Amino acid sequence: MLALTSSAFVLLLSACGETNTEEVESELRKDAENEQVEADKKKEEVTEETEDEATTETEELNQNIVDDDIVKIDLLNVERTTDEIFGDSIKVNFEIENKTDNKIIVQSRDVSADGYMIDDIVVFSPEIAANKKIKDNLKLEEMFLDEGDELPKLEENLEMTLIIIDDETFDHIGSYDVNIYLS
Q1: What span, in angstroms and rounded, lies between the C-alpha atoms of 9 and 91?
Q2: Per DSSP, what are the bridge partners of residue 128?
Q3: pLDDT digit string (tens) for 68-124?
Q4: pTM value?
Q5: Between 20 and 30 A from 74 (CA), which of 6, 41, 95, 143?
Q6: 70 CB-contact burial (10 Å; exposed 0-12 / middle 13-18 / buried 19+)
Q7: 73 neighbors 106 (Cβ within 8 angstroms)
Q8: Of 167, 181, 180, which Cα lies nearest the Cα of 106?
Q9: Burial category of 137 from C-beta neighbours within 10 Å (exposed 0-12, middle 13-18, buried 19 and up)
Q10: Distance between CA atoms of 136 and 93, rounded to whole angstroms?
């Protein structure tokens, strides 16, 4: 009799345990679904805020700047980004083709925008393997300016000298005065 009562009691506890386990699993599933919904909402909010903080306008130019037996350089476009967090920036995008059998470096010197020297705030020095192409950009960023300085508008023209350097010997193998009219 004692064994029969004990068995009935164990079966009763087992049945209650299954019900509690199912209820707990159901609650956990609901909590996980609610957390996922909340995470998705927050992700949408962050995406909307980010989209509002940064906007980019692209001006397509597609101009050939240089084309000889050493190098071909095409100006693709100018991207102007307004960003409340990181500051405004301008990217002048180029495609460069190395026509030589040696690796080269293309460097900008004496860069000016709309008549104002900006050489100290731009770096342009892409390396291009022999007989290869690269897409690279000359970038002006407000975040790297001294306090109180403004980013040039770059509305009229961009002038610079492009120097082609042999990567192995560091000899200057080409030099090009470039004047890009943007208006």
Answers
A1: 77
A2: 104
A3: 999 999 999 999 999 988 889 999 999 999 999 999 999 999 999 999 999 888 989
A4: 0.69
A5: 143
A6: middle
A7: yes
A8: 167
A9: middle
A10: 6
